[in-house]
Specification:
The protein is mainly α. It is built from 2 helices and no strands. The protein has 2 domains: 83 residues; 35 residues, no CATH class. It is 60% helix and 0% strand. The longest helix has 65 residues.
């Protein structure tokens, strides 16, 4: 191998290594950015959960004091809601939207109006 060929090979190897290092660095930077986004979302979700727990506890306190419910009644009601999907697993299964009250045709879960008659779909406060 000539000196010129040897230098060309060394240059190519150095260039390949630099490109590989740059790609790895870029991939690491993108992964770090994605991890920070996930961490931020987790912090927001934890704050939402804490807020919902406070609201729930406050509402339960009102029901106990104003209407005389007790903790056994709450447990019974929670289990009743949990069993709607046939199993006690701490989850509520998603529900199908049902039929339009105006034309009795199936409603789409993602639309605010019936596809068939154009009437607004009923608002389900606890739908999932």
């Amino acid at each position: 191998m000539s000196e010129h060929e040897r230098i060309a090979v060394m240059f190519h190897e150095a260039l390949s290594s630099a490109t590989s290092d740059y790609s790895a660095g870029l991939a690491a930077e993108q992964a770090q950015f994605a991890a920070h986004r996930v961490e931020d979302e987790l912090i927001r979700m934890q704050a939402d959960i804490e807020r919902l727990l406070l609201i729930t506890e406050g509402l339960w306190k009102v029901l106990k004091e104003e209407h005389g419910y007790d903790d056994d009644e709450l447990v019974r009601r929670v289990l009743e809601v949990d069993l709607k999907d046939g199993k006690i697993d701490g989850k509520v299964a998603s529900q199908k939207p049902g039929d339009c009250p105006h034309c009795d045709r199936p409603l789409s879960q993602d639309r605010r109006y019936c596809l068939y008659c154009g009437e607004p779909t009923p608002i389900e406060l606890f739908s999932r």
